[in-house]
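User: Predict the structure for this protein chain, please.
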Amino acid sequence: MNKHLIIPENIKEILNSIENTSLHLAELPLQSHPRLPQFERHIRVLDIDAKSKLQFICFRYEQILKDMETGEEVNIPLPTPEWLIYKETWSYLRDGDNHLIELPVAEPEGDMNTDLVKVPSYQYMLWLLKNNKAGFTELLASYLDEFVEKHKENLDALS
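Assistant: Here is the predicted structure, written as structure tokens:
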């Protein structure tokens, strides 16, 4: 494509880096599989289908196991429960250090004097991205943590 250009070394490095960029959107580490602790486990995000008017996001992903010594992927199919964020999905607001924000309850009942601040997930994701509060992979990692917490048993199953 650029064969007609005289390309300096620093630009060649950038072009090579672009050419060698993996085609999946992100690969994020997961805790070791409880029955396969000898492998590193990752979630590889392959696609995102977002519908802004519906406030809906579907992540297509796969679980990846890698040999700890060689880094080679191991071909053991692992489950991939649906990873969806939609209009009725809620998240908890976090501060600049990624800690959950807890505030006093207006009308305390029993032992409940404070509660976490809830926000609509889809709009929160957009706000974080548009206001440079989180990078793309940071955002995915944060939502992946919530997803794994909810679906741990299914993710850890073996066929």
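The chain has a mean pLDDT of 91.
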